[in-house]
Specification:
298 residues, alpha/beta, 2 domains, three-stranded antiparallel sheet
Length: 298
C-alpha cells in the first residue's frame, strides 16, 4: 500500500479532497501532518476521505507551522465522528512522554523520523503501524507492520536550478524485499523540507512524475521550466510558458505519463489560457504524483 505524506496546508489538503473519488482505499492511505491550529480544512479533508472508505493517518503531535513553538508534546484531537488512525512522532520524546501519548488511544501508529532506543521499541508492540524513514535494523527485526518512507524529491533553492528530469525513487518496487514491510510512502513533489511560502518566482517550474520504463520502472520527475528574465514579474506568462512545454512533451511522449486528474487539470488550464496561482499548480502536481504511483501498484 502507498502512504503519501502531505502537510495540512490549504492546497495539499485540497489535493486530497478533490481526488478522493479516484483513490482506491485498498491501495492508498494518506498520512497528514497538521500545520494549522485551525482544523477546519483538515476536518473537511478527513471527512471527504472517510466518505470513500479511506481512513487517513493523522499526526497528533505536530511540530511544524503553527506548532513550531508549541511546548511538546501537543496532542491534537479531531471530532469523534471522524475515522482516522492517530500517529505519534517519536523524535525527541522520552519513554515517559511516549507512553503518556500512547495511553490516550486504543489504536495508534508511530512515525520514527530518527533512530529509536531499545526502551522505545518495548513500548511500541501494540502499534498498528510503524512508519519510518530511518532504516535502523531494529525496526525490521522487532516489528511486523512497517511502512518505509523515502524523501525522493531533491528540492532546489531556485527553480532555475532544476534539471530537465531527475530520479525520484524505486521504493515502490523494492519495499517488499523486507518481509515485515507492508507499504511505502513519500512526500510527493514537495519534499520533506517544510516552508511556509516560497520566495519570488523568477522561473516557474511544473513538476510531473512518471514511471521510467527505461530505468527499471523507477519513478522520475520531469521539471518543466519557464523562461528566465531575472525578475519576478509576469508569473502568469511564465506559467503559460512552462505549461506549453509540459503539454508539448506529454503529447510527444504519451506513453510516459499516466492519464490522471492532475494532468487533465493542466490540460484544461492550457486550453483556457488561465493562470490559477502557484498553489494550485502545486496541487495538480501532487494529484498527478499520487495517482501515478497508485496506478503502478494497482
Amino acid at each position: 500500500m502507498y502512504y503519501p505524506i502531505l502537510r495540512g496546508k490549504q492546497f495539499e489538503l485540497a489535493a486530497l479532497r478533490e481526488m478522493a473519488e479516484v483513490l482506491q482505499n485498498d491501495l492508498v492511505r494518506p498520512i497528514i501532518e497538521p500545520v494549522r491550529i485551525d482544523h477546519t480544512l483538515l476536518i473537511k479533508t478527513v471527512k471527504a476521505l472517510n466518505d470513500v472508505g479511506i481512513i487517513p493517518i493523522v499526526i497528533i503531535n505536530p511540530t511544524l507551522g503553527d506548532y513550531t513553538d508549541t511546548p511538546q508534546p501537543e496532542s491534537i484531537s479531531l471530532p469523534e465522528e471522524l475515522n482516522y488512525l492517530p500517529c505519534i512522532l517519536t523524535s525527541g520524546l522520552s519513554t515517559t512522554v511516549l507512553q503518556e501519548l500512547i495511553d490516550n488511544f486504543d489504536s495508534y501508529s508511530v512515525y520514527i523520523e530518527e533512530g529509536i532506543s531499545r526502551e522505545h521499541i518495548g513500548l511500541l508492540a501494540d502499534a498498528e503501524l510503524i512508519i519510518t524513514k530511518n532504516y535502523q535494523s531494529a525496526v525490521f527485526s522487532d516489528f511486523s507492520n512497517v511502512v518505509i518512507i523515502n524523501d525522493g524529491f531533491n528540492r532546489r533553492s531556485r527553480n532555475a536550478d532544476y534539471p530537465d528530469f531527475s530520479y525520484f525513487s524505486d521504493t515502490h518496487i523494492t519495499f517488499h524485499e523486507h518481509a515485515n514491510v507492508i507499504g511505502f510512502g513519500d512526500y510527493t513533489i514537495t519534499g520533506d523540507e517544510f516552508s511556509e511560502s516560497g520566495g519570488p518566482a523568477y522561473v516557474v517550474t511544473i513538476h510531473l512524475s512518471y514511471v521510467n520504463q527505461n530505468e527499471f520502472n523507477s519513478i522520475y520527475i520531469r521539471h518543466f521550466k519557464s523562461y528566465d528574465d531575472s525578475t519576478a514579474a509576469r508569473p502568469g506568462d511564465k506559467f503559460g510558458d512552462a505549461l506549453r512545454r509540459l503539454i508539448s512533451f506529454v503529447d510527444t511522449n504519451p506513453l510516459d505519463f499516466e492519464s490522471t486528474l492532475g494532468l487533465s487539470c493542466f490540460r484544461a488550464l492550457h486550453v483556457s489560457d488561465h493562470y490559477p496561482g502557484l498553489g494550485i499548480v502545486k496541487k495538480h502536481s501532487i494529484q498527478h504524483h499520487i495517482e501515478t504511483v497508485v496506478s503502478y501498484i494497482r
